[in-house]
Amino acid sequence: MNAPAAGSRHVVLVGMMGVGKSTVGRALARAMDRTFCDSDDEIVARTGRSVAEIFAADGEPAFRALEIEVMADLLDRDEPSVIAAAGGAVLAEATRQRLRRAGTVVWLSAPVQTLVDRTASGAHRPALADDPAGTLTRLSAERDALYAEVADLRIDATDSVDVVVDAVLAALVEGADR
Ligand code: S3P
Question: Measured between alpha carbons, how far is 23 from 97 in angstroms, rounded to an integer?
Fold first, then answer.
């Protein structure tokens, strides 16, 4: 497959917990022959602590401050990459502004029940410890406007990884042709 002409800028995936940003991002980066980065992984690498540990020991505001720093650094990198931005990254106005300048922002979306099913395993989401369905419903309602604000493209991510990656690639090519 030809690498799509996404230009010389980043492709950034945003969207809710469990929508598949990291899995799709990794496969997309492979297809585009680009480096993949994930904001949660970068926070863990920098601090030597898990997301859950940071939430528990320092609280969510401390985690969000780290997230703003990490997103700024990832988006500032010269090498055009595929970047998965954790679900709450868009909460910060500073990050939303950077996202608008960073390249192509792809909002992956899926129904809440899909998010519930996909977040059933995995320990880096302390916010979902109690009532995951209720929390995901509330957070989706709160954040959809923020994802919409930063996104150039919205792609339905309900289907398999391969189908979603192909949809993103097709949309990037179409955007480049316009
Ligand atoms: C969060 C999303 C998580 C992680 C943390 C908070 C959120 O990342 O950063 O648990 O508030 O949406 P993923 O979106 O990769 O699950």
Answer: 25
